[in-house]
Write the structure tokens for this entry.
Amino acid sequence: MSSDAGETSRHRLSLRVYYEDTDAGGVVYHARYLHFMERGRAEWLRALGFEQQRLRDEQGVLFAVRRMDIAFLRPARFDELLVVESSITQCGRASLDFAQRVLCQPGDTLACRAVVNVACVDAARLRPTRIPEDLMTAFLSETAHGR
């Protein structure tokens, strides 16, 4: 049930850079981009009607990052408004590939981009497991209809 999603719709999450996100020079610390992208994926999932705690409690699954390829292209700075874009590029039986971008506002200037592979894991055993059917249906519908 693997699907090459190609170009799909992008979920957009706006957030502000706070002092705690920056280094001594007022530039976003590189590891904070991982936090921003995690929020983007979590809010994308929530927008599809799935909350992570409920998935764990009711379906016994979690999502964990397996692999990430990231490029830092422009420094984001304290108090800037950012937009995190997230879209699925590949949907497998037990994993998803996301394309994510962090853009500086105004103007959507690209600060960071990443390809993120996320695995579905059994919450009790922390071992890979199939993505539940209702989730898979929602993911494939999202990619097919470009919502």
Remarks:
- The helical segments are 32-47, 52-59, 133-145.
- The domain at 3-145 is CATH 3.10.129.10 (Thiol Ester Dehydrase; Chain A).
